[in-house]
Amino acid sequence: MKKIITTNFEETQQLGFDLAKSLKGGVVCLYGDLGSGKTTFVQGLARGLGIEKRIISPTFIIMRTYEIEDKNFYHVDLYRIENEKDVEGLGLLEIMKDDASIVVIEWPEKIENLLPEKRKDIFFKYLDGDRREIVFE
Ligand code: ADP
Ligand code: MG
Fold it and tell me: Which ligand sits closest to the CA of 134?
């Protein structure tokens, strides 16, 4: 396990940017409270994937799709869903099975039972002020 403490939002974006370089496809789960830096991390990740569009949190629409050269990047935010039934119809299960797609999920614990075993888990924690702790394999 690696534990990193970032001291400003750019450092958290940089971690996301760096991850993008080694990411071929698959599911990345971002755990942590509101304000712990998940969406900020996704901003850097998307930039690292070559996406130039501004990343807006998909809280109200649950999922946003961004096209990259040969694959899709899906940014999912499950904050507002109640349970697993609420993601039926999004096609999320199929999307998560497609190894070529990159799927990043905020609040993945809401669909704990649907998550693939093969995934990358990243844990965010608000420490104080601009400090955030980020833990991953
Ligand atoms: P979440 O998606 O986990 O709810 P956000 O990324 O939307 O969190 O919000 C984090 C907020 O905290 C942003 O306003 C960001 O600018 C601010 N912030 C301050 N310091 C940091 C840091 N070290 N890492 C990430 N975000 C930070
Ligand atoms: Mg968020």
Answer: 1
- Say if residues 31 and 123 touch (Cβ distance below 8 Å): yes
Widest CA span of the chain, in angstroms? 40
Question: Which residue's CA is the closest to the ligand 1 atom numbered 18?
Answer: 9
Q: Which long-range contacts (CB under 8 A, 24 or more apart) does 89-92 make?
A: 90/62, 90/63, 92/63
Q: In terms of pTM, does the model score above 0.90?
A: yes
Two tokens, residue 9: 């939002």
Which protein residue's CA is at the shortest distance from atom 16 of ligand 1? 9
Which amino acid appears at position 108 of this protein? P
Residue 38 Cα to ligand 1 middle (Å): 7
Compute φ and ψ for 90, nearest 5 degrees.
Answer: -85, -20
Burial of 63 by CB count in 10 Å (0-12 exposed, 13-18 middle, 19+ buried)? middle
**DSSP-derived secondary structure letter, 39:** H
Give the pLDDT confidence of 32-57 residue by residue, as tens digits: 999 999 999 999 999 999 999 999 99
Q: Is 12 in the pocket of ligand 1 (CB under 6 A)?
A: yes
